[in-house]
Amino acid sequence: MKNVLNITTICLIALLINIDVTAQKNTSQENNYKTRNSISYSYSTKYDNGYVILTDGTELQGQISIYGASFDKIWGVKIITTSGRKLILFDNSVKEFGLRDGVINETPYDFTWVQKDTKLIDVRKGYAPYGYVNLKDGSQMEGRIELREVKSKLVSIELRDNDKNKSKIDVENITSYGAKLFKDEKFVGPWKLVNWKPRASDLSNDKSYSFKGYMILNNGSRKEGLLTVYKKENIMKDVEVNEEKIDYADIKEYGFAFKIDDYYAYISEDNDPNNVYSNPIETLFAPGIIKLSDDSTLKGLVAKANTSESSDILFAKDKSSNVIFYESNQVDEIEQEVSQEVLMAKSNKNYEDQYLNGYKRLGDKEWKIEKENQLVTVYAPHFGYVVDFKTNELLIGELEVKAYNNAGVTLIITDNNGNTSKMNRHKGYGLLDKNNKLSYEEFLKVNNVEATKKEEVVTKNETNNAKTENEPEPIQFDSSNGVDGYIVLDNGEKIEGKLSLLNYNKFFYNVVQMKTAAGEVYNYENDQSIKLIVVNDGEENKFVECDGAYVPVFESYGKFVHFRNPYPTTLSFAGALADQFMDQANEEASEFLNNEMDKAAIKNAIDKQKKGDWDEKDQRNLNDFLSKEKIKFGNSTLFENMYVKEHLVMNIETGSRGMYLPDGLTIGNTYEMKGFMRGCIEFHDLESDEQKAHMKLKDPMKTLKFLEESFSN
């Protein structure tokens, strides 16, 4: 399932001129794939038995679908693994993929997965209360089902029948398997969303919490209101509508009848509409398109149930329509167009949750107990706030708290002017960090949040000539006399001696000279056979080869290095939004664009960005066009000083790399670093916040260490 956030703000344009090698990773012929129509890609195939090998060496088996501009321009692979994981991989996530017969999980989303032994991080087990296994000899076995997965690969299935007899079955003997989970056949919608109250006793019926819904009886009549469901184990009893019990035998169908606000209230039990923005962006309803597995298309308001790739999808034709639920296996792709208003509301909510009047909110662990006995707990004074119960006035200052063990609290707060207020009733209080104060605008910049206005891009976007705040100073080492060092070549050969780096250009070198102790002299100019250069000039400094340039390394860990791209590919249009820009671009473009169609393609890209209508699909299409036409924008004086600074993370053993923008917006080209990280199976197990931190290199050494350990397992 593809989820594209088509953010309505101006985007950067990444002009990546790379040789497409994805087709070389595909081990199956074009005629073996079955194509289908797609809302997002010019080329896409139906899911079929296959495999994927990630860049970290992990092999995944299951159902695969490839997508891109054409069969020869594949952008990535989607896979539903045999254990039910749905992953969207990019061209730089995979080492190899193709079609292959294998075991089929017919209900991939119906198993509960746990990692029982934290020492065995590569072993997971999946469970279902009841399931089946189809064997190659044509027989079928049923019972409580347990799956065992090692390094994301299914190795065995164990069944336990009603007599508690266990049968362990090797994968080699299985054709397919699945779970048989209980779901009321008359219920329309996700049965798992029905919430159940705790039982009063083992003899009592299961009773659901009430929800807004509808019911159609066998006689065709329809009822709407609050529904409550009763069952005993897996036997349905009856359903209440507005406290009127309806015999189950008289019901034809029933289900949820949620408007969008009803749905949010049901899942959050909170009627505050602003709290919706505490949820991830993709779980908020936005205009969009759903492409179902049967090739039908829906247009309206679209949301994900959660942030996972295998999330169920919610759809409403408009705000006044009921929400319709689609399970993940019913959906191939979705697209959402998130408005500036939603982005602004989301950013505001994030800021308000973390800051109060500009001060960082502190958690409960910051409370320090000064005195404690059986009657009262006195906390040490700390900078904080109180909201007055009567006036709703926000008071900020030195806060003292006495909490009485028989309930009740006394709050004393003194503001900066020495005014003291004492109260026993309040509408909220807490601690603040006096030394951590950020305005909303500063918060956006620090957290690299997408700009909410087009003009803000200018302040967040630096050209390649600018220096990033806190960026390590480039090492300027240019000695014709040479110092101790060594060179490591692609073939593993190590050459030691007196080393000189020459032709310093902004922050990298173009020439390396080496003289060995035996008097041998080696000269390298823009030579890509060099893997690594190490200079020992009092301290060890590393340089890595990138596209023929020798670039200083910021950080390194094992085989992974972090450095600045010597030849950035992303153009900034922050200073080029005027109408005359296109005239100048066309005038200069005539020198290297072949025809009017070429010029039109570039103009269309610029126009779409100026309108804020730009997404990953547009970015990749432009990349393919540029690669096909072999356009070298570096030859244009117009574009020469408009490249945005890029940082790269590279595996020096394989040459694979990911790019991110340290100073700019990443809309439209986030797939570069995202794809690189998704080549690690362990990355997919991280929480969303941890994934984002790695993709933005919030802590470069932490990311490099994570990659090294992931690739070493």
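[next item in queue]
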Amino acid sequence: MIGFSAGEGTDFSRTCVSLSGLSRGDLEALTERLLADNAALKPAVADRRAEVAALKGVPGRPAIRPGGMGPKTEPQAGEQR
């Protein structure tokens, strides 16, 4: 198995892995590990972006609610489209 982690102090310049020599099981395990590492890093990146914005004095990202289908509007009586 490949000893590969994205923890504190990870040196990404030396994480070259030859994928062609890995079995399917090893590739699946590596993929799961990379997806988990990526999911763990996303909140840290968002925190850093917010911190940089605060240090620059720029407002952070706006709180945008997800869009959706609002209630449909009916035409008023006697109104044509």
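[queue empty]
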